[in-house]
Design brief:
365 residues; alpha+beta; 6 helices; L-amino peptidase D-ALA esterase/amidase; four-stranded mixed β-sheet; single chain
Length: 365
Amino acid sequence: MTRFRDLIPIFDHLPTGPRNAITDVPGVRVGHVTRIEGDGKLVSGTGPIRTGVTAILPHPGNIFREKAPAAVFTINGYGKATGFEQIRELGMIESPICLTGTLNVGRVWDALVSYAIRENPDIAISTSNVCPVVGECNDNKLNDGQGRHVSAADVLRAIDEAGGDHVLEGCVGAGTGTICYGFKGGIGTASRQVLDGEFTIATLLQTNFGRRPELQILGVPVGKHFEEDEVEAPPGSVMIVIATDAPLNARQLERLAKRAAFGLGRTGTVGHSGSGDFAIAFSTRNRRRHEAHAAVRETLFFEEEALLGGRAAIDQCFRAVVECVEESVYNSLSAAATMTGRDGNTVEALPHDRLIDVMRHYRRV
């Protein structure tokens, strides 16, 4: 797996975490199940299959019983996500976050309900219902979307096998069939340390957006050097997951989620009509017990109105989000491989050698 920093140096303001991944936030785990099966002509309901599911676990405990502070922000609302309204209302998340292909959303949602009941047999009997969180991108250019090939077993496996080490990127999990700026997209992740390493902010993206001429990398108009072989595909969508161990409340997390749009903008997109662009942010700190009688003790992070450096602190968190989102896009492109899917549709990977040549032309290497 090739990451962007293996090809091109990045000189950002903030240092990365040790893995430069969302799993640099202590306790966060990621699991993928990838479905690549069959070739040739589309047979609806059978294949070829180029899809999958990615699970992000906010902490290793019982997420329904220990809900994580969370917020969502809709950059562009053409999407089929679930669970967002309850997050907006209550400022908490109570399930793993799962990403997948568009028409798999219902099946993934149902599997998350089964997972929650497995872990909490009292759901819908002696306690409340659960609100699963599922995000999606359209992978129908390469995949048999009507087949809805992600099963409950796939979702449970992604959750159960989720790990806190290095995160696979590119054509894996929910990124298996996605397209980014006319190149093969997929999963990308990055992290930044803030306040002299006291806290970490990190992102994981499912990239499926952008027109090729728009692509910019570190300010270089890379896409204009590859216009001749652009893939015809809808401008697509992007799912952005933001994690931190800074003790932020829901309002502050929403402010972080809003800054994700600036990171996307650095890569060139204008947020096309018909694109579903969503950000979900959560903190691993100040978790809320499910039981109504549980005591709530919340330690809030610096507010921008605080006297001693509060504004500078939150601004550093904003910068971390922007840098992480930008690099996650680059990592999704760098790690992806050329893929042929249904009806022989082929999406080429961003060629590393030509990318280096373009960046060298603009004196960025």
